[in-house]
C-alpha cells in the first residue's frame, strides 16, 4: 500500500491549490473521482473576482488573493454593479464595503452605466445607479488548475484521476483510503471534496459540519450581429437579479443567481432556472434571447454560516476540512491555500492573511461544532 504525507480528496480549485503548497512539506497525492480536474464546481464557475461579497471575511480573503491572481489564470476586467428599482440602499452598502479594499471604485449615474453597457434598459424596472470597479479580474479556472497541477508535480506531488475514495478508515494513527484501483495511507487527509465534503466525513466516521450544496444556473447566448460585447464589464445587480459577462465578441453569459436545493451530484440546469435567467436579462436590458448557445449548472457549497472552512477537525486527528467555498472559491483560492498550508503543516500563519485581518479561528471547523 502506498504511503503519503498528505492525501487530498478533490481535484477542484480548493484541493489543487492547497496540494500545490502542501507538496513543499511532504509527499502529496490528490485523488479525484472524475477523469478530469475541475469537472464539478470549479469548471462550471462564472469565474470572476470582485468584492460584492456579503461577509467581510470573504472580502478580506479576496483582497489577500488578488495579488496572486495574474496571467494566465486571471486578467484585469471591469465590474459594474447596478441597482434596480428599490436596491439603492444595497448599492450604498456595497460602496462602503468595497471602498475598504478598492478605494478607487466609482459611483455612476444610470446614463454613465449605459455608456459601459448600452443595452441597460431606460424604461420600467430600469437601473437607478451603479458602482464601477475598473480593477476586477476575469479568471480562467482551467489555467488556474493547470498552474497548480504543474506546481504540485514540480514539488514531487501527484494527481490520480478516476480515483474515487470509496472507503476511509483510521488505522495506527494514519488514514487509509481505498479507491477502485489502489489503496493509500496518509498522515493527513485533506477533505476538499466540494459538495461531497460531508459525505467524505461520514465515510471516514467523522461527524459532518453541515455543508450544503446549492445549484446555480448559467446560460450563454449570442447578441445581435455586429454588437461587440468583449469590453463590457462583468455586470451584476446588487440585490436579487442577475449577472452578465462577455464570452468573447458576440456572446454573453448570464446567471439568475439562483440557489436550488440539491444533493451532491453532476448538477444539470433545470428549465425553470434557465427561463428565469433569460427573463431577468430581458427585463433589465433591451436584449431578447430567442435561443441559447449553451446552458449548465454547478453546485456552490456552503457551511451553515456561509463562511469558508479550513482546519483540522477538533475530534478527528489528521482530518483536515477545506470546504464551504460557496460562490467565491476561485477568487479566494490563493488565500485559502495559504491558510490550509499553514494549518495543515503547523507552520507560521501567513503575514498576508494577518495583514487583511484574517486569523485561523475564523476559518476553523470548530465554530460549527458548538
Ligand atoms: C455557476 C457558478 C458560478 C460561480 N461563479 C464564481 C465566481 O465568479 N467566482 C468564484 O470565485 N467562484 C465562483 N463559483 C464558486 C466556485 O466555482 C466554487 O467555490 C469552487 O469551484 C469550489 O471548489 P472546490 O474545489 O471546493 O469544489 P469542486 O470543484 O466541486 O471540487 C471538488 C472535487 O471533489 C471530487 N470528489 C468528490 N468526492 C470524491 C471522492 N470520494 N473521491 C475523490 N474525489 C472526490 C469531485 O469530483 C470534485 O471534482 C461559482 C460556482 C458556480 C456553480
From TrEMBL:
Keywords: Oxidoreductase. Residues 5-340 form the FAD dependent oxidoreductase domain. Signal peptide: none annotated. GO terms for molecular function: oxidoreductase activity. InterPro entries: FAD-dep_OxRdtase (IPR006076), FAD/NAD-bd_sf (IPR036188). One of its GO terms (cellular component) is cytoplasm. This is D-arginine dehydrogenase. The lineage of its organism: Bacteria, Pseudomonadati, Pseudomonadota, Alphaproteobacteria, Sphingomonadales.
Amino acid at each position: 500500500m502506498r504511503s503519503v504525507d498528505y492525501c487530498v480528496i478533490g481535484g477542484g480549485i480548493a484541493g489543487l491549490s492547497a496540494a500545490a503548497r502542501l507538496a513543499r512539506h511532504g509527499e502529496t497525492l490528490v485523488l479525484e473521482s472524475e477523469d478530469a480536474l475541475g469537472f464539478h464546481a470549479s469548471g462550471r464557475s462564472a469565474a470572476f473576482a470582485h468584492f460584492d461579497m456579503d461577509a467581510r471575511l470573504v472580502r478580506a480573503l479576496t483582497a489577500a488573493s488578488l495579488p496572486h491572481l495574474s496571467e494566465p489564470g486571471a486578467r484585469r476586467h471591469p465590474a459594474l454593479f447596478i441597482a434596480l428599482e428599490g436596491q439603492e440602499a444595497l448599492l450604498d452598502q456595497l460602496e462602503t464595503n468595497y471602498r475598504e479594499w478598492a478605494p478607487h471604485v466609482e459611483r455612476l449615474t444610470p446614463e454613465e452605466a449605459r455608456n459601459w453597457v448600452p443595452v441597460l434598459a431606460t424604461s420600467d424596472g430600469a437601473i437607478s445607479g451603479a458602482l464601477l470597479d475598473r480593477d476586477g479580474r476575469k479568471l480562467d479556472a482551467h489555467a488556474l488548475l493547470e498552474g497548480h497541477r504543474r506546481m504540485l508535480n514540480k514539488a514531487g506531488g501527484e494527481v490520480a484521476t478516476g480515483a474515487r475514495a470509496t472507503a476511509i478508515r483510521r488505522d495506527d494513527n494514519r488514514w487509509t483510503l481505498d479507491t477502485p484501483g489502489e489503496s493509500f495511507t496518509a498522515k493527513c487527509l485533506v477533505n476538499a471534496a466540494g459538495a461531497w465534503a460531508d459525505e467524505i466525513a461520514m465515510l471516514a466516521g467523522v461527524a459532518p459540519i453541515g455543508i450544503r450544496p446549492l445549484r446555480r444556473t448559467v446560460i450563454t447566448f449570442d447578441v445581435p450581429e455586429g454588437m461587440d460585447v468583449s469590453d463590457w464589464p462583468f455586470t451584476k445587480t446588487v440585490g436579487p437579479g442577475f449577472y452578465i459577462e462577455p464570452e468573447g465578441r458576440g456572446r454573453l453569459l448570464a446567471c439568475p443567481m439562483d440557489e436550488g436545493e440539491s444533493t451532491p451530484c453532476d448538477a444539470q440546469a433545470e428549465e425553470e432556472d434557465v427561463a428565469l435567467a433569460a427573463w431577468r436579462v430581458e427585463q433589465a436590458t433591451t436584449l431578447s434571447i430567442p435561443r441559447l448557445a449553451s446552458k449548465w449548472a454547478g453546485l456552490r457549497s456552503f457551511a451553515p454560516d456561509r463562511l469558508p472552512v479550513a482546519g483540522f477537525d477538533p475530534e478527528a486527528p489528521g482530518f483536515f476540512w477545506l470546504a464551504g467555498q460557496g460562490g467565491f472559491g476561485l477568487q479566494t483560492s490563493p488565500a485559502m491555500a495559504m491558510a490550509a498550508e499553514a494549518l495543515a503543516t503547523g507552520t507560521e500563519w501567513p503575514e498576508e492573511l494577518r495583514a487583511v485581518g484574517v486569523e485561523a479561528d475564523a476559518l476553523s471547523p470548530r465554530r460549527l461544532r458548538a
